[in-house]
Each structure stands twice: as C-alpha cells, then as structure tokens.
# Entry
Amino acid sequence: MKLAALFFLITLASCSNLEYREIPVTSKEQARMVINNEVTFLQDTFIQSREPYYGGLRWSPECLADNTIGKVIEDEKTIRVQSRLILNSNGDPGFCAGEKSILVLLYCDGEKFVREYKVANSSKKNKPGIISCD
Amino acid sequence: MRLIYLFFAIFSSMPAYSLTQNKLQALNIIQDCNILNINGDVVRSLPGKMCLFFEDGKFISANEKRMRLYDKNYTALWTIEGHFHHQLALSNDKKRILAFDSGKIDIKGKNKRTDRILVISLEGKILHEQSSDVLLKMQKLPYFDWLNSPWLKQETNTEREISHFNSIYEIPKNANDLPGSPLREGNFIVNGLTHGIFVLSPDLKKIVFHKILNTSIEHFIHDVQVTKRGNIIYFNNITAEPTQKNLYSTIQEYDLLKKGVVFEFKASPEAMFFSRYCGAIQELDDDHILFSDKFNGTYIYSRNEKKMFSTIRGTHFQNRLPVYNQSTKAQDLSLFLKNFKR
# Structure
C-alpha cells in the first residue's frame, strides 16, 4: 500500500513537471479552431505526391509511418489530439529524420489556453496517460 | 538612349544590392516549401510544393490540388482549388501572386491538359487569367500532343497535354523599358516549353512579344526572367550544339535587341552539367547568379570572377529532400521565420 502511494506521488510529480506551451484562446470554440487548424496544417505537410518528371514519392512510406496525425477527440471537458511526429532540434515538424516524438494539443474546459506538449519517445516522461487535464 | 536608361536603372531606381560573404550567411535557400540555411540544412519544412513567404509570418502554399494562404497560427485564410504546377512568383509590388494552374480542352472528344496563367490578389481573388490554348491560337502555334506521366494523368484526369508552360514573372524596371519596347515594366514574361517566350499585357489578354530561342534545342528552357539590363536570363536545359550527341545545359543571358547570348555559364567539359527537365535561376546582384537543378544542387556563381561563390549541397538529389526541384530561390527569411513562430 505504501509502495502504491509512493508510485502515485512520483507519477503526480512527473505529471506536474511535464512542460507545455500555452497557446492563448478566449473560448472553447476558439480552442477547437486552433486544434483543428494545426491538424489540417500537419495533414497538409504530409500530403503524398509524386515528383513530376521522375515520379519519385515526395515522402517515403517509412517517413509517413513515423509522422501520423491523430484525430481530434472531444468530450464535455476536453478537446485533444495526439500525433506521432519526427521533430527537428527546434521542435518543428515536417522531417523524416530527427527525434521521434508525440505532439499533444489539449484543451481543458475553463482554461484560457490550449496546451501544446512535445515529448520525445526517448523521454522518461513519455508514458501512457501522462498528458491529461487532471 | 538605351545607355541612358541603363544608367537610370542601375544608379537611380534600383536599390543597390551586392552580395558579400556576410550577406550570404543571412540568405535562406527556398526549395519548394523547404527552407534551408546557406549551409544546406533544412530549418523548416512547410506544407505544399511551391511556397511564397512574407515577413509577417504568412505564407502561400500551393500543390497539385489547391493554393492556400496560411497565417502564423497555421490558419488557412483562403483556399483556391486547382492543379498548381511549376512555380509561384510575386508581382513587383508584392501584392499579386503569379501562378500556373491546369485546365482542359476538348479535342475530338478527348480532354487534354492546358495551362492556365493566373494573377491572384493576396486576398485570394483571381484578377486575371489566360489559357495556353488561346495564346497558341493567337500566335498560330501548333498544340503539342505530349503523353502525360501516369501521375499527371491521375492529377488532371487528362491523357495528354497541349502545352507545358513553366515560368511567369512581372517585368521589372529595366534598361529596355522604353516606349514601344515589349519589355515594359508591368508586362508579364511567360515561358512555354518548346512554344517560346511570350510577353503578355498586364491583363494577360494581349501577346506583346513572342520568340522561340534558337539557342536551345526545341526551346527547352526554364525560369525566363528580365534583368535590369533589359536582357533575359534563363536556364537552358538543352543548349544547341551541332552534333546533338553531347547534350548539356547552360545558364544564358540573351540580348533581345542584338539577338544573341551575352553571358553563358557552362561546365567544363560541357556535358558535366545537364538537367533535361528542370532548372531554376535567380540573379542576386550584378555579379552573382543562383542556379539549381535536380541532380547537382544549388550554386551561386560569380560572373566577374568566373567561379563559384557558394555551393549549397543540401539541395543535392542524394540528400533526398522531399522536393519538386523546379523553383529554387534565395531570400533572407529571418523575419518570416521569427514571426512564423507563434
């Protein structure tokens, strides 16, 4: 029981240490728009096409597999989307080589911002369920 | 008279810009929608096959399905559906977008691809448009009947194309911007593979001038622009040489009045520089010219010193950038990059 409590406390501490960037919004509607815009932007980034003269694929299948854009999930209290992306050293998407990461956009009801989390797969903080409004 | 205008163009109306090693470091290379630093490292990779960037963080992105204006918050402010191809350019006042879309023409019951030339406002409104079939009819030039690649067939739902236009620019102030000259500021210079160079009126409705250059085999030319000296510069994919056995590419400046090449870059031996299907150029100042093709990378060449000023290997084919390779340009994008970050 004591061990379980200790584990809970460590997890909680880890959660509170997980940094995120705040994207200011004035309402839930605006938060929804911000999140949908980013999803569209990322989808546009990874549209597959062919080079016109030699026919080569713009993005390799492996690169597309490493850059998968999530679906927006919304319930009464949250709007959330989680994507798996390769980010460069500045944390920008649009790459085939770099740090495999997750990018989570999360809106928690009542907040005046959308949270943007970027967590490298290699990070010890990257654990299922770690990013939530709780 | 021409000399007077040349003097005027160079010393009074044009901002003096001279590329130095320090200024070179501030330049970014734009290849499709990838932004590289001068060392060839990709610093941003943004949506689209062709992009134009603005200092306030907005950018135009186009691909074979649509053109969009994004703001720094990733919001698409407007969208125009269309099969955009080859390149985008800005007008001299930077308030209009110059682009190519694909259209269709019915010939004996079969749809064939045409080129639509578009002038678009920054608000996403098409201001002027012209179709290649109309221009070819006006100039009494034959349609060609080229078989489309499998992917082009799929993208345009056409089996064949009648034209292959590949560059458009608004003519800047230049030494031949004289009354009666075709190279008046505000006209558009448009290039069609094999069909030649067209100078069009500002509303795209009239052909002011047309020429098929004999310096190239079948006018296989890309990225035709007017210099402030009143000449045209272009990437000559297949330079005419009598035997036609050792094809090679050149960068040429052509004097339309003297009807001759006044500057040429070629490799030595010549056949070492050859790009059959694509190529981009940009005059950076009176001395330096940037050019790029699919296989070799991007070069900045000093005409005065007759040597390479800089070679950007990041755009070399082997680096496998997800690119289209038709439009490589240099621009200082520090303000765009600063403002694009939200």
In short: The CA atoms of residues 70 and 83 of chain A lie 5 Å apart. The longest strand of chain A covers residues 78-87. Residues 3-15 of chain A have pLDDT under 50 and may be disordered. The interface with chain B takes residues 23, 33-34, 37-38, 40-41, 44-45, 47, 49-55, 58-59, 63, 88, 90, 92-96 of chain A (CB under 8 Å).
